[in-house]
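Give me the fold.
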Amino acid sequence: MAHSRKHMGGINFDPSISPTSARSRDWEGTTSRWTEYLGPEATSPKLMTSTSRTFRQANAAGEGGQHVQSYKGLSIDWVVRLIEVAEGLMAKMYRLNQILDYPDSINHAFSEAFWKAGVFPNCPRICVLLSRKFPEHFSKLQLERVDKIALDALNDSAEIHMQSLEPWIQLLLDLMTFREQALRLILDLSSTVITLLPHQNALILNAFMDLFCAFVRVNIFSEKIPRKMMLQMYNLLHAMSRNDRDCDFYHRLVQFIDSYDPPLKGLQEDLNFVSPRIGEVLEAVGPIIFLSTDTRKLRNEGFLSPYHPRYPDILTNSAHPMRAQDLANVTSYREWVLLGYLVCPDELLRVTSIDIALVVLKENLVLTLFRDEYILLHEDYQLYVLPRILESKKMAKSGRAKQKEADLEYSVAKQVEKMISEVHEQALLSCDSIHQERRILLKQEIGRMVLFFTDQPSLLAPNIQMVFSALALAQSEVLWYFQHVGIASAKSKVTRSAPVDVDPSDPTIGFLLDGMDRLCCLVRKYIAAIRGYALSYLSSCAGRIRFLLGTPGMVALDLDASLKGLFQQIVQHLENIPKPQSENISAITCDLSDFRKDWLSILMIVTSARSSINIRHLEKATVSTGKEGLLSEGNSAYNWSRCVDELESQLSKHGSIKKLYFYHQHLTAVFRNTMFGPEGRPQHCCAWLGVASSFPECASPIVPEEVTKIGRDAVLYVESLIESIMGGLEGLINILDSEGGFGALESQLLPEQAAFYMNYAKRSSIPSTKSPKGVTSFPLPGHESNPENNNSVKMLEAAMQRLTNLCSVLNDMEPICVLNHVFVLREYMRDCILGNFRRRLLGALKTDNDLQRPSVLETLIRRHMSIVHLAEQHISMDLTHGIREILLQESFSGPVSSLHLFDGPSEQNSGSATEIVCNWYIENIVKDISGAGILFTPLHNYFKSTRPVGGYFAESVTDLRELRAFVRIFGGYGVDKLDRMMKEHTAALLNCIDTSLRSNREMLETIAGSMHAGDRLERDSCLRQIVDLDTVMGFCIEAGQALAFDKLLSEASGNMLEEGAPLIHSLLTGVVKYTPDEIPEKKEIRRIRVVANNVGVVGDHDSEWVRSILEDVGGANDGSWSLLPYFFATFMTSSVWNTTAFNVDTGGFNNNIHCLARCITAVIAGSEFVRLEREHHQRRSFSNGHHDETLDPEIQGQVSAEASVKSAMQLFVKFSAGIILDSWNETNRSHLVAKLIFLDQLCEISPYLPRSSLELHIPYAILRSIYSQYYGNSPSMPLALLSNASPRHSPAVSLSHSSPRQPRGDLTPQYSADFGYYKGSSSHGQEQLYEPDGGNPRGNENRAKNVRRSGPLDYSSSRKTKFVDGSASGSTGPSTLPRFAVSRSGPIHYK
């Protein structure tokens, strides 16, 4: 047929392909059509086996003028090329199906995506009608009545739609051409090849059957594309644009499509002439198929065992060498049977064919056509094979031949009918169990094989064919498993479909993948040894072939010159093989393609019916020697030659499972179900991941976009599996890190739990006492050793074993390469372990109630780190360093450079964990936003709470043991963060004090004047006018809490420094003692003092800390700060004192007033130092560098600073005592006791006031009497002089008038050494839980009962108390006490 018009330049129809053309046409003219499918040799992918490439080389050499130039050589070359063409055609059809969203062309069901794909015009009614009415011509269908609008639109855009359809019309033409060429070639080979039996002519048989199966697959697959619609629509568009003329090839394509509608009927008619030869081949491969299905025989007779099954000491098993080679091809044999009987149904009427077909049909439900495209096998057998059998049965019954033969045919046909009718039900019930049994066999045999060859690698080379057989069988089973996942097959005699029962959690798949991967690795590892063995075999084979060529039988054959020359070439090739040496086997480069080419040329001659010397002559001439015949030796040498230079391709053919790409979604699901199941093995993940490396090989060069898509899917598959593997690894770690894991082995009772058990033990001794319900909730230590808890220990051991195995496997795994992506599992494992540690750390910070105790958190971290160390023993990387990095990042996340300088950025970034912990401490302990009644207890040196703060009482998270755990976890960075946050909070409180000083400055100046003048009336009047006194007092108490907490933190830091770096701690302690005291301090000395204060080796921690805050924010820069002692003295008039009571058990007050003493001391001292340092700078700037040299300015500055602080403190004490004692004539004098004790504690706290300073203003007899009342009562009932005391009132703080200044953040927090509070004697200072007094504030009667009427506070109006130096209390005149008076009575000794 001539070429079509110019617009069809891409569609060429070669007249030489018609059936009437001469068979001896030029090869170049024939192959030019398939250039697109074959491609250049250099760039064509490995779509064919190495045997096919060798066929091509052999025939190319024959055409080049070598020994043989026969028609048979050209036919084999056609076989090779047409098989490649078939692959390309199916790849194109597969791509078209994807574009058209997998249409159902049989039922004419098309999705919305089908019409939007751009291949067909969006005219569904016209297109579907043309497809349904095929092969009727469109002119007879009256399309204008179907859809006139769509028809007019087609007329307008006919050319555009034709261009869209042209490449797919070309595909139809290629299918028709392929059908003609392949069918003619199959018929020629069938009629001219003498023998096609596997044991005589295996090479040509495989090529012939591969072409036969490719031909059948292509034509069956073509039914899945809309051929009818494509042709009819293209012809309609062609007629619209070419004056109603049909396209040139229309009628031939109509005939082609119609003859293959359905394809199986056309195939049965076309292949009717080769049916007998196909039947012979299928009968010949039957024994191998039977052997492959008999798992017991395979196991008992050791067909897949390198050693004798009954005599394991015999390390060679050469009983079945040919069977092992045949087992490698058994998958192909099964496909031959399924396809052969499907298109040649008459061959089922052979007596032996029933059993062969039954065995194969019973274990398959689908027949794979290409990639993941398949047909339902049993449905097609019932539709297209069973009618032919019934027809034969009917003809045999009618007696068309002799009666005896008719009875035999009828009987066989009846058996075949029964077999086809019943085998579907049998397959639905038993196919999965059959294959599962086979997978178990392969799992065991391959496992033994791997162990054996790992131990005896020298035996790998002699048994390489057995290895290929094991790989091929495992490959077949794995592919079968995924091909049948999710398949729904219609049951016979019913319309509903039944899903195939395939277990998605079958662990044998992982074992098979792992076994195949390890076998391939062994072969690659010992490839030099295998090549050396093969070379040795070929060298010895040369002598045997030369001997056979010289036998009398061969001489009598009188071979012609060309055939004799080929045999001589074979011998020369084998004799010229380099001799393998143990040192340089891997360096030998030996190309045996010429040898294989010449041997195939010999086979092409001797298997042709037109040759005078054929295969039977050669066998008869050489088999009489008692050894292997000439052809057997040659075929064996051919196979071993491929182990020299084509071993990798052999391995890829039998061991590659790249086709699993088309089932990668099922692959991921099965992996997740089996990998971490009870029978899953961690080492299997290597094989599951390694599968992806071969996925890109599935891409066809015919469809360029497939490379990108398959590569992307392969990468996503690997990432998905890695995510699952890391999830499993993380799960194993978390199992061990749980309370049921290592937590159960190190369980310890908390003090509360121990007390609970003690109480229970005490109560259980009383029979009437019921056992508490909570006892069972606390397992006793060692409970896991009980026999009933043995399973938990076994579970723990199994989890540890699986974890170590998984870590070891992932560490040793080679990088996974997918295109240009490289996946290193060690790196993923490291990121997983460290990421899980970070998540566990952040998760452990908070409990269900609130913050986790630092000591418990430290225990959890150590437990997790012990698991990481366990895994680290099997990983070649430092995980401990990574753990430290995470702890560092969670403590400090700012730039490292900021750690090197004290003058760093104002904002220091800290980790999220540190933020969480520090915020909790600030909000719940320092600020007490939850109102839990946080109290600092000087006697015990921690904070207490009246109710739990979250899940714990305050004392459980603020004692030194917990703070030391905090320091161990977060280090100095966490301490700096917490210290910085407390400084910011304290700076805001100091700013409020500054604001109050400024707003009350005039009033304070008046108060100061009246105090010095002794004008009590004016003083009291002004005191009542102070604004927000109680609020500011609350701020100061809160600042005192911050000072107390920071003191605890510095003490904990110092303890940890002394424990971890004693030399540095000792150095700081010694340096601080000898640092010069000067004002202003030099920058370097100031830095040393800041660092020392941070670890608690500075004497006055509080003053240094407040001083650093004021320096940072620029505070105390106003003259109003000189009024600070008077301002603090006004606190004595606050109503807060009315609810204040001293508690002997805590050494403090019930509303934290004792923290006010700490604040007053620190603020006065810190502000004085800052003020004097500022004044010094001002004087230096005014004097222009000239200063008084009479006294060292440093000594002078320090002395003046201390004197100033001491003066201010004494001034505060003097006026506070005056205000207190002036109020004793009031009706309610209950507050006097708390105020007097407060002043005494202030003098004890302040390093600038001697303890005797208070004696100048308040007689010690009063204080001694007060303390005697407190400590002289029964310890079981501590006396509170104020029975109606209530918790400290915390007024709402409004800071709208003052914005806290932000610190510069350039200084390190300061700490000082501990100083002692007054503590009672050991007989009276028992540590008891403190409970706030709950009396009625109006219950004056209760107060009267608790007050000693004869005590020192029972003053009458006529009685006066003599003070030291003869001063009298209660006078309104100015005090006659000297400002710096010193007590003459010495230290106080309480009795």
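Strands lie at 366-370, 373-376, 488-490, 497-499, 816-818, 821-823, 935-937, 942-944, 1142-1143, 1148-1149.
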